[in-house]
Amino acid sequence: MATPFTPLTNTKHGEKYRPIKVSDIVGNEDAGYRLQVIARDRNMPNLILSGPSGTGKTTSILALAHELLGANYREAVLELNASDDRGIDVVRNKIKMFAQKKVTLPPGRHKVIILDEADRCTVSIETDDGNLLKFHTLSDHEILGRLMVVVEAEKVPYVPEGLEAIIFTADGDMRQALNNLQAIYSGFRFVNQENVFKVCNQPHPLHVKNMVKHVLEGKFDDACSGLKQLYDLGYSPTDIITTLF
Ligand SMILES: Nc1ncnc2c1ncn2[C@@H]1O[C@H](COP(=O)(O)OP(=O)(O)OP(=O)(O)O)[C@@H](O)[C@H]1O
Ligand SMILES: [Mg+2]
């Protein structure tokens, strides 16, 4: 039997399938292109990356910093994330000390400070639109491509409908898709629709689809009893409405 693969995405570092090169990050071509130009020209501006969860913001910036600084990464990159306190004292101390630290870098390279999850910073950050890279949720096709890489590398048994169900529940969030894949594999060793909806614990889309069908056919009592069944199973109204949507 195959051994379960190590956690994919629930730790900040050491995520097995986090792309290492900017060019391996799928989707968001505009942002990706700008990052590749920065990597190529070695001309790092102040940048803000914004967008929904699990779409590659942290991944992109770590990859870019590695491409720019290579072997100097450890001494030339300061990473501050949500687990660090980032009040004004941190800005005064940690960042200032890092900025003053002497690091010998190849010509044209600069030290990089990464303020991950900066929306939780208590210090205001200024930018203009030119420095803002917007990320968007990933398409089904983009998520499928990446899931296939993992499924093949880890020899995870699956049927296509199982992967489709993972993509459905992930809703454009690659981290969610990979976490779900892992949870299903750990729990059942087989990715099919049934197992996905057991693990992801969303109302089964076929059930919800039937409710919509009943409504379209004017069978409102049937639709309502479908709704009540889900509610009695313990799904919250939000879960039901989200799946309906
Ligand atoms: N565009 C992508 N291409 C390939 N893998 C991705 C992509 N986006 C996310 N992933 C995978 O999902 C994981 C989480 O991505 P990442 O940490 O970059 O998300 P994020 O955009 O920073 O989300 P958050 O807003 O929650 O911080 C990564 O480890 C990587 O495996
Ligand atoms: Mg992030």
Brief write-up:
InterPro entries: AAA+_ATPase, ATPase_AAA_core, DNA_pol3_clamp-load_cplx_C, DNA_Rep/Repair_Clamp_Loader, P-loop_NTPase, Rep_factorC_C, RFC_lid. The chain is mainly α.
Give an account of the 3D structure.
With 245 residues, the chain is mostly helical. It folds into two domains: 28-134, Rossmann fold, CATH 3.40.50.300; 140-244, Helicase, Ruva Protein, domain 3 (Orthogonal Bundle), CATH 1.10.8. The chain has helices at residues 29-41, 57-69, 73-76, 88-100, 140-153, 160-170, 174-188, 193-200, 205-216, 220-232, 237-244, and strands at residues 48-50, 77-80, 112-115, 132-134. The chain has a two-stranded parallel ribbon with strand order 1-4. The protein has a two-stranded parallel sheet with strand order 2-3. α4 links the parallel β2 (77-80) and β3 (112-115). The chain is elongated, with a radius of gyration of 22 Å. The two termini are 39 Å apart. The model is unreliable at 7-14 (pLDDT under 50). It binds adenosine-5'-triphosphate and magnesium ion.
Characteristic terms for this protein:
245 residues, mainly alpha, Rossmann fold, Helicase, Ruva Protein, domain 3, 2 domains, two-stranded parallel ribbon, 11 helices, binds adenosine-5'-triphosphate, binds magnesium ion
The tally of structural domains comes to 2
CATH level-four homologous superfamily name of the largest domain = P-loop containing nucleotide triphosphate hydrolases
Contiguous runs where pLDDT drops below 50 for at least 5 residues = 7-14
Biggest sheet: strands, sense, closure? 2 strands, parallel
Number of helices: 11
Radius of gyration: 22 Å
Shape: elongated
Small molecules held by this entry:
adenosine-5'-triphosphate, magnesium ion
Number of strands: 4
Helix-strand pattern: HEHHEHEEHHHHHHH
Given helix and strand content, the structural type is: mainly alpha
Which strand order spans the largest sheet, edge to edge or round the barrel? 1-4
The CATH top-level class label of the largest domain: Alpha Beta
